[in-house]
């Protein structure tokens, strides 16, 4: 095994599960290991305490006149349950079939370590870096980065930079370098629909009072028309139309045909807002999804109750230039306006995050594209992502800088799931990518 | 304590929970006790084995020229969970505040024993009964009477009778004698809506495939218009219109005002099919109730999944002259016709039972009314019930005889729930009722 893989394996062996307080010591040990590794490379490191898990900062010697590049990553990982579904222990990494198997291998330790090792290689080969570098590694990404925004605000001056690079997203398919320049935002809410004070006998009382399960269904059903277009008043008002070049490029992105989508999701049919391709629906159009619905008896057989209450959880994925708070207000207005007779409806606001977009054809964007091409041997596709990474927008707002999303995950990398894995080829490509990126940015 | 209350207490002490195989011995011991009690009264008894719990039959000496009256009851009871909510142990009956507390006190041991003890008293006082009596007591009512129909069919000749009396329903309010002459029927079904092969990330895939939770909501919502009228084609075709006398009588039935319904259900508002009172909605109009709905993440906080599947359970309460199988077919057609795009919908049929109605002004019906008036000192109200007791209709079909429903339960008797209780006054009234009924029927 190469020294580089040995470093990654050492990093992967820490069960740095941020959500589980039993693993707080492991998260800290992982941060300490990282500090030592970065020190050993000749970088200046700082370990910043937060109310929970520490933030690790590392820099080379900065020089006026050089561009400053901040590389973000996270060293915490998701839990491993159900652990019995793993083919090899999640914190005992191993290589099989050209992939590195273990929790965090892709998300995010593998991608993050590729940047670290790229810098190490470059420092060894050239003695110094062509840019002023800031590594910013947090230990709370998997729990929603609760302490990152305060940290960014407090250290705004020290973190001043010209561009940010993040490898925490995906490649659309094996061997297809991918640059992301947009993310959907999100706003979540939950409704509780209440009727009778307790479950009623559906024979004795059915027909004279409203059924909360029927009412919640009416509310959920009211969110879309039959074609899948969202029926909330004003919902699409601020949606930025797709550019012509985006529609053209996305039509050619591999892995996004209807057959691909059906294959990967297993859905019986494609369904979505009329007049848009799947890629367009996922990357440039907002959604209203029910994440959960429940009420009454859901066990085996029948229980003829008229349930006392029912609930639904929603997440709305947002695109530029929708504002999460504006959408949350429109959703609330809609739900209250459509509240069926005979029940009470409570709307509970959830978390939110703004959508993000930057110009992939800017100077930095072009540098990212060239670096990807050099690392992987072909021109990258330019995409937005359907998911939400609120910190990208936070960094844009606080530091005033855009992020290049240079993701190395593949659709079958099983992030957040059992048997997470990372292609050795992408790990090695990631190291090349880092070096090419720093050079291109410096030009 | 009177000898009659002692008999009831002995009967109540058997934990004859029919659904729990651990209590099979208790159910049998209860049947044996009943046989002994009936023998001690001078009746001829039979204990009939079934694949599960025995059926107890008892008769006096029958004489040609006398009317034959069958009195049905059940000696099995519901489970007692959650047992910690009981104020006194469920199988250690006691009297507090004029009520007998214990599992089965109302449903059905108390009501049934009132008939038994009425017969005992009459036999002591008069030496014989004015009718040919058949007691039919089963031990499986609380599990849906799986062996009663085969038993009725096998013993059709021996069970030949002119009228059936059943005390297993309710009085509309304290001190208001009540005769039921109708029951709603029922048909149940469950739908499973399937989309992707597994839960999807709502950001990564939301927007390009249909969400089964949205689809199940659309289907549930399609069952009613916004006023609560059922929107299934042909659903109301066979509904028998209310008679003028029924609307007039029900308007005067106590305990059925909107304020009463709101008070007992705790619902925030009255809701139901336009142009009908609550009593009419409950007793003479059919329903489409969601008993359960579920899909996706229902726990605390948020989990932004697009669920793989969702489900809903329905029960439809039916009124004369709706046919459960006809309605089940119409429901299935409706659900298949309204199946949203992009998902598959499976409809699974559940159990059913026909609605029941008889003429409360027939000769036997009048005898029931007079007996209630004699026992409780005022003319009874005539109602139908919202619930379903399929065996009443089964007995009508197999034995060709109608049932008088002379219920003694009160709305606060907590049947099927912790702290089940039976008013001592209604127990004593039930004994008087039995004697008056047999006399009136004999006239």
Automatic annotation (TrEMBL), chains A, B:
Domain Peptidase M20 dimerisation, first and last residues per copy: 181-342
Tell me the Gene Ontology biological-process terms attached to this UniProt entry: proteolysis
Pfam families from the UniProt entry? M20_dimer (PF07687), Peptidase_M20 (PF01546)
State the name under which the record lists this protein: Dipeptidase
Question: What are the record keywords, sorted?
Answer: Hydrolase, Metal-binding, Protease
Highest taxon of source: Bacteria
Q: Which residues form a coiled coil?
A: none
Q: Does the keyword Endoplasmic reticulum apply?
A: no
Q: GO molecular-function annotation terms?
A: metal ion binding; peptidase activity
The answer to whether UniProt assigns keyword DNA damage to this entry is no
Q: Name the Gene3D superfamilies for this protein.
A: 3.30.70.360, Zn peptidases
NCBIfam families reported in the protein's UniProt record: PRK07907.1, PRK08201.1, PRK09104.1
Q: Which InterPro entries match?
A: Cyt/Met_Dipeptidase, Peptidase_M20, Peptidase_M20_dimer
